[in-house]
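Researcher: We're teaching a course module on how sequence relates to structure. For the next exercise, students receive a sequence and then see the predicted structure as tokens, so they can try to spot secondary structure elements on their own. Here is the exercise chain.
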Amino acid sequence: MAKAMWNGVVLAESDDIAQVEGNPYFPKDSVNWDYFSDSGDAKPTYCHWKGFATYFDISVGGETNPGECWTYTEPYVESASITDRVAFWNGVEISGASDDRGQVEKLPSDIGDKQGWKRSAG
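Model: And here is the predicted structure for the students to work with:
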């Protein structure tokens, strides 16, 4: 079973993990949302093959980790496996998940010969 932990608290736990670009994506219903809030500091980002990502802060024991969790609210068809899922970074410890890259964008890209992601305006 894969787990996402920060500051000694289990944030998410599931056997149903979608591995995309080396990031394990947990089902939203496996997340302990009591520790999460919308991120006021992290701007949305855009990936041309996954779509727009929004971010969440976590707060545990009086400490906040800003923008450490993200989700693609309406992922593109090419990345449908991450629908209704979240991923973590920035100090969140992941255990029990695969170390492989999982699904990655085909190169060259089928989407306008573009690669990568960027911060969205605004």
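Model: If you want an answer key for the exercise: The CA atoms of residues 45 and 120 lie 5 Å apart. The chain is about 0% helix and 45% strand.
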